[in-house]
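ok trying again, last paste got cut off:
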Amino acid sequence: MQTFLPKTPPIRNYKTKAKSLSNLTRVASELPKLLLTNKVQTTINNLKKDDFSIDVLINKKSDKEINLAMVHLSFIAHAFIWGGHKPEKTLPEVIAKPWVKLANYLDRPPILSYASYCLHNWYKINKNEPISLDNVALINNFLGGVDEDWFVTIHVCIEDAASEAINAAYKLSRLKEHNKNNDFLKHLQTISKSLKKVNFIFSKMPEKCDPYVYYHRVRPYIFGTKDNPDLKEGLVYENQYNNKPQFFRGETGAQSSIIPFLDGALGIYHTNDNLRHYLNEMRDYMPTKHRKMIEYVEKKSCAKEIISRSKNLMKAYNSCLEEIRKFRAQHLEYAASYIHKQAQIKNPFGTGGSTIRGTGGTPFMKYLKKHRDETQKQKV
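nice, full thing came through this time. structure:
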């Protein structure tokens, strides 16, 4: 089955024995306490430059362990950058060097991406039970707590629930003129049914993730350095990139491959403007395999053209688009309540970051509205 979650759950511990990997595990697991006591920067600055070396994993090409190391380093790096009284402008070599190496190996930027925040950052509490909101826990977090864990767990379960839609959309993209209408109908109905599950899970976000806590306790740690007014001059990765500041997008749901894949398979197009360029840029932050899957269905699928000749198929097609529209509308509502509204409230704890731009560095309200409206307009 085609899916964007790992086919087997991510590993929680390294099988490879190395002191540097033990260091990574220890510091990553201690982040909630280090952030609480303002000791992240001190802890990192006291390390030697090779204390987080991951060379042994690169040499072994141990992908499961490499993804775990990417999770660990991404969380540690973001805790260092955003965990002080003001953002750090230089990332020490002890983090920067192995992080850039891993990023190059994985072919995505050295920044906390959706892949490390969600796709490779979970495990099943009971290995014998399926993925569910009651059976998923996180490998890593920043401050920890119910709200942060629930926010990520919701996304893990959304990825799992979308697997049937992804699989059906892939098969749909391979259908041609000679295929029967029932072949198209079957896959469209599966997509719609799967997305109803996705939207049901998404609707449960407020149950255990409070908007105020999210804005002040979860959101501040997942920002990037591109189009971020708090790091206008970018981030220097010590002794990497010739010590020139780098600009990368922060973690955002736009880095999930679900919706771009469905857009491609169903022929949903976005006008060629800044939003379109941004969506294409988000693919740089996705796992390589996911990028290729999206490109494949975009090139291969002619489903929309064939579907538009049958009223029965058009009805099923529009049902799929309606579920995607609902997902985007719900995302817009959450952006309003979890970010825009919270930005108006004075707080004694700190800041949730930019009130105009999302964690990915975009004018999020404007973009989310456009996402929703373009989906609605393309019903047949």
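cool. Confidence is low (pLDDT under 50) at residues 348-357. The chain has two domains: 19-113, 124-377.
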